[in-house]
Amino acid sequence: MGIKCLTKLLRQKSPGSIQTEQLHKLSGKKVAIDSSLFIYQFLMNGNHPSNHISGIFYKTINYLSLGIEPIYVFDGKPPEQKYEIIKQRKKKAENAKNELQKCTSEKDISKYKKQSIRMTQKHTNDIKKLLNLMGVTYLHIDGEAEAIASELCRIEYVDYVVTEDMDSLPFGCPKLIRNCLDKSIKRNDLISILNLEKILEDLQINYEQFVELCILCGCDYCSNIPRVGNVTAFNIIKMHGSIENFLKSNTKYNVPDNYEEIYKTSKELFMMYHNNLKVDELPFNKSQMNKAELHSYLVNECKLPETNIFNAIKKLNNIY
């Protein structure tokens, strides 16, 4: 879910914080990639069982060919506070599978098929094997990928985080890369870059207040208060300065009994990695490209077109 309607709020209150840029302008930069984002995207792209592998393969080659160094970050064990939302997502996928059995129209089949997709450990292992053979770095530790990637960016180990998940911003990510948010532009080489410093400047709030704004909007750790949407959440923070002050004076909204406890825990979770990642001690997986095994894996195991793979590996070899 990320942060409910945060993108819409930023378009209204801080349009200058969202910049459209050509991907090649990031040449020479290092990016941390939320792996589950790409895996899910490619799993939903057609019926081939190796779509996630071919998608990551070609996406990675594109980054490398532009001089961008990718570091893939995988989701580890999530915090307990996220178990309920994960349970809801699993239930939604199960319901979609059931509905899929009843569908007759192509539109409904496509809709429920996408909703029924769940990423498995096998999908993760497939991509790890691919990255090992490509010689591309990845990181897999306990915690949420976007949280870890955001801290790597906050401490300037990487220059950007690539994800569609807006909760990277309350995690402290200074520069977030998303697919181009301007849907009127039909170019694949354009991206949107969201700048946290500019957001705080335009909203005229500090980082902690921004985290609380995101919590009020509704996030994976804490549902929004009934009748409190993104604009109301912003007005509350501007008027009261904090959720704590708002709760003390609130007489208008029906706040759940345990909301204070949940919001405080949520705030701690958004800031839990700050200055707590020791880069030198992180188990980054680094390898050298193995051209022969990479070809065999993609062609023989994944059943991808040999000519395309041969040409792609040749390009990859020239990059290295």
Keywords:
Rossmann fold, 7-stranded mixed beta sheet, 320 residues, alpha/beta
Sequence-ordered SSE layout with sheet pairings:
Layout (H helix, E strand, L loop, with lengths): L5 H8 L4 E5 L7 E5 H9 L7 H15 L3 E6 L8 H20 L3 H10 L5 H14 L3 E3 L4 H10 L5 E3 L12 E5 L10 E6 H8 L3 H11 L12 H11 L2 H7 L9 H12 L20 H11 L4 H14 L1
Parallel strand pairs: 2-3, 2-5, 3-4, 5-6
Antiparallel strand pairs: 1-7, 6-7
Helix pairs in contact: 2-3, 3-6, 3-14, 4-5, 9-10, 9-12, 10-11, 13-14
How would you describe what is shown here?
With 320 residues, the chain is α/β, with parallel strands linked by helices. It has 14 helices and 7 strands. A 7-stranded mixed sheet has the order 1-7-6-5-2-3-4, sandwiched between helices. The longest helix has 20 residues, at 83-102. The chain is globular and about 65 Å long.
In order across it, which strands form the biggest sheet? 1-7-6-5-2-3-4
Overall domain count: 1
Mean pLDDT: 90
Helix content: 40-55%
Rg over CA atoms, rounded to whole Å, is: 21 Å
CATH superfamily heading:
5'-nuclease
Instruction: Report the sheet-strand fraction.
Output: 5-15%
* Distance, first to last CA: 37 Å
Helices, by number, come to 14
- Structural class call reads alpha/beta
Q: Using DSSP, what is the number of strands? A: 7
Task: Return residue spans where pLDDT drops below 50 for at least 5 consecutive residues.
Answer: none
**Could you name the CATH class?**
Alpha Beta
Q: What is the second-level CATH architecture?
A: 3-Layer(aba) Sandwich
| CATH fold descriptor | Rossmann fold
Order of helices and strands: HEEHHEHHHEHEEEHHHHHHH
- Please state the overall shape, judged from the principal axes of the Cα atoms: globular
